[in-house]
Amino acid sequence: MKRILSIALLLAGAALLSGCPKKHNINEPPTAGTQVPGSTSGSDSASTSARSLDDSANQANSMANATGILARRVIYFDFDKSEIKPEFADLVAAHARNLTSHPGLKVKLEGNTDERGTREYNIGLGERRAQAVRRALMLQGVAESQLSTVSFGAERPAAEGDDETAWAKNRRVELVFGP
Amino acid sequence: MNKHVSKVVAIGILLFCSPSWAELVVEITKGQADAIPIAIVPFSAADAAAGSFDIAQLVSDDLARSGRFRTTDRKDMIEQPHAGAAISFDDWRRLNNDYIVVGQIHPADADHYSITFELYNVLNHQRLLAYQISANKPGLRLASHQLADMVFEKILGIRGAFATRIAYISVLGALPHKSFRLIVADADGENPHVVMQSNEPLMSPAWSPDGQSLAYVSFENRMPSVYVQMLKSGERRRVSAQAGVNQAPAWSPDGKKLALTLSTRDGNLDIYVLDLTTQALTRITDDPGIDTEPQWAKDGQSLYFTSDRAGGPQIYRVGTQVGDKPRRLTFQGSYNARPRLSPDESQLAFVTQEDGGYRIATMDLRGHGDVQVLTKGHFDVSPSYAPNGAEIIYASRDRGRGVLALVSADGRVQERLVSSEGELQEPAWAPF
Asked: What is the pLDDT of residue B183?
């Protein structure tokens, strides 16, 4: 009893899936109109703070030259915590005073975590840290409209390494000034 | 095969062209003691061109990689038959083989090859399979995986998943100039293709149920948005760019909706369902804790998710009808997160904290909710089931590098997929 069956492979699909990677063979990355960072200049990621668009940009630029306590833009957190530690109270207060006296100035609060735990839950923890700083600034008179938050979770570490030295540097909120 | 024997199976046969980067090599770190012995005899080839592709090696690697088979080394084969009539069953039996695969590859026409193969039970000489597969040259790899799938299913009664794909994130470069790539590759790590690249983080790839599209999170412009991208055309659509968090997309079983995580203005994360056709948003959870990492039940009527409403993160289930009250599922330990449902819904895989490490665990959903911790790493996260439910792929770290790893759903077989470059994370196994 000879049972030779013929399998019709979906050759078109096979060719697409198994063919030589003309780099982005099957999966053309999104083309120009759809904003692919990295496919063009990559300048997008470089410009973190000072984009001169309007009046507040000048203030943002002045922040770029800030000295003293205003030059410190990072608040660090304990593991699994989002409370602002007493040692950062002065930093937060100084930025709150500066923001209230420059109502055109805007700041983005970027929350981050260390690498431990699941990635999406860490996005939640990073957001919680950013919100803790946002609340502290608002309590000290900063207008809500000056503040925005974003959480990168564990995706944008400041330091590499699978140890507490690196982790301590990564559990942070960065203040990014801009228009 | 001894347990903990580290057997390196290099699957990097570069055939038609070599991708310039990121070959993955599979290392079996923990094998199964009662693996089934099988011989995959090199196929005969009518000409050199046909012979340049080693089908038998690929099939052998697939079966060995599953951990359920022990494949006979070629140097131990005293003869190399190519058809059933030429097999001296007693010889193969003396070499302790339970099964044998023999075959041939012929050019069918200018572009196509015809592969014939047979699977025999060495003990009773019974022919279990006889097939002819036709494939063009780029299709030979897929045809080999399909051949391995047929052998796997015939002997074990479990559908093979060798001819499937995985998606994952690869991070290249050093701080502060990292680049992020969303990659789709064959299940054995071969044929990697860049789907999307960015200088800002990419996260949470999720396959549509038809395997045609991926949803993912991209931080381009330094803000998170959820995108859906068609793989064949590369066409993509930004489906969620609300103020605040846009995270953790999960496809409904009918492919018409995404569950995702959004935040209110004060940063409270909750689960929503987005209808991809009407854009209508339905809020599913409403709690001051972090609710995230949703995953649909097969009937589309409920969602599993992570919430820290009770303190630490735990796994809950909630109906998708408005007003349903979430029920907590995990109670052991202080950290249980990112649930993934096995294809037959008998198990939940998730990340648990044990002895200070993050590990992959499963929970029995049919019996008494027994929990089994499957891995022993410190940073084992992002579990994803193979579509046949036999294995779980996950992200791990090995000597300070992000790697992908596999564990059988019963924990008996473990493997690592080692990339030549880049940090690999967030694997997602495609559907059949």
From this structure: 96
Domain termination residue (choose one: B124, B156, B188): B156
Distances in whole angstroms, Cα of residue B28 to Cα of each of B35, B144, B299, B385: 13, 20, 36, 18
Cβ neighbours for B355, distance < 8 A, ≥ 6 positions apart: none
82-101 of A, contacting B, C-beta below 8 A: none
Instruction: List the domain range (segments joined by +) for residue A133.
Output: 57-159+169-179
Q: What pLDDT, in 10s, does the model give residues A28-86?
A: 333 322 333 333 333 333 223 333 344 554 565 567 677 789 999 999 999 999 999 99
Task: Please state, as a whole number, how many other Cβ atoms lie within 10 Å of the Cβ of residue B411.
Answer: 16
Which structural domain, as residue segments, surrounds residue B85? 35-156
Q: What is the mean pLDDT of chain B?
A: 91
Give the pairing of strands B391-398 and B401-408: antiparallel
Instruction: Tell me: pLDDT of B14 over 60.
Output: no
Residue A9 has pLDDT above 80, yes or no: no
Two tokens, residue B175: 């701080």
CB pairs under 8 A between A and B: 211
Closest residue on chain A to B176 (Cα)? A158
Q: What is the DSSP letter of B220?
A: G
Question: Do B141 and B176 belong together in one domain?
Answer: no
Least CA distance to A45: which residue of chain B? Answer: B199
Give the number of other Cβ atoms within 10 Å of residue A86's Cβ: 7
Cα distance between residue B317 and residue B277, in whole Å:
25
Q: What is the ipTM of this complex?
A: 0.90
Q: Which residue is it, tokens 């190519």? A: B82
Domain-embedded: residue B349: yes
Please list, in sequence order, all residues whose beta carbon lies within 8 angstroms of the beta carbon of residue A46, skipping any fewer than 6 positions away.
Answer: none
What residues of chain B lie within 8 A of the CB of A30, using their CB?
196, 229, 234-236
Measured distance CA(A108)–CA(B221) in Å, rounded: 13
Contact B406, B185 (CB under 8 A): no
- Interface with chain B: mutation pick from A31, A51, A116, A120, highest number of B CBs within 10 Å: A120
Kindly report the number of other CB atoms within 10 A of residue B345's CB atom: 13
Q: Check which CATH number belongs to the domain holding B194 and give it.
A: 2.120.10.30
The CATH number of whichever domain residue B106 belongs to comes to 3.40.50.10070
Q: What is the CATH number of the domain that holds A105?
A: 3.30.1330.60
Contacts with B, A 42-71, CB within 8 Å: 42, 44-45, 48
Residues B176 and B222 grouped into a single domain: yes
- The verdict on residue B323 lying in a domain is no
Contact flag B143-A14 (C-beta cutoff 8 Å): yes
Residue A150 has pLDDT above 50, yes or no: yes
Q: How far is CA B347 from the centre of its chain?
A: 16
Is B65 a residue whose pLDDT tops 50?
yes
Model confidence pLDDT, tens digit, residues B298-340 = 999 999 999 999 999 999 999 999 889 999 999 999 999 999 9
Give the closest of B138, B290, B351 to A18, CB-based: B138
